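Most newcomers find our protein records easier to grasp once they have seen one. Sequence and backbone structure share a record, each on its own labelled line. Nothing more is needed to start thinking about how sequence determines fold. As an example, a complete record with its sequence and its structure tokens follows.
=====
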Amino acid sequence: MLPFFRKLFIYIALIFIPFWIIGFLFFSLYVLNLKPATALDKIDGLAVLTGSNERIPEGLSLFRKAKNKPLLISGMNPKVKESFILTKVEKEAIPYITLGWTAFNTRGNAKEIKTWAEKNALKKVLLITSFYHIPRSLLEASFLLKNKVEFFIHPVFPKGFHQNIHWIYTKNAWFIFLEYNKFVFVLGRNALFSLFEKGV
């Protein structure tokens, strides 16, 4: 009986692994070629997902360009003081900024976005996060909001990052690899949740 299961596992692996590799290649090409949305006048608000150092400065820069449309900074580090962020903007802009302190992962970010978007009656939101984090962030937020909000994206690339073959030799290759696996997991989890919601 044991040899049968061993053979079955090998056959499943032989089928699954090529699809996984092809999926990873497509995922890598997708995130490496992401382009930021340019029409800030079309959005109702901006949501920054904290993480890498470049995300918040990029979000604040876009917030100024968007002329103080509602801004959410999701996943604030509890060790960071509120004043650290608010002193970086003009006083009249402070009422438009919401700091999210409850998110500790991407699903938590999505929950903060949902609460904030519903409170402010937002229909079009610019999502600002690292380039490799965009697909999973969109997946989590869109699933929770049931596509009631249209998301635009602004991928954040590290300084000096080259969107060509040289990324393979940087730490970003590892980030993309990990993110792809997380994306596949969330995709499968959401599919299961959708089946249960439909009573299948």
User: Anything to note?
Assistant: The domain at 36-157 is CATH 3.40.50.620 (Rossmann fold). The first strand starts at residue 45 and ends at 49. Residues 161 and 170 are 9 Å apart (CA to CA). The beta strands are 45-49, 71-74, 97-99, 124-130, 150-156.
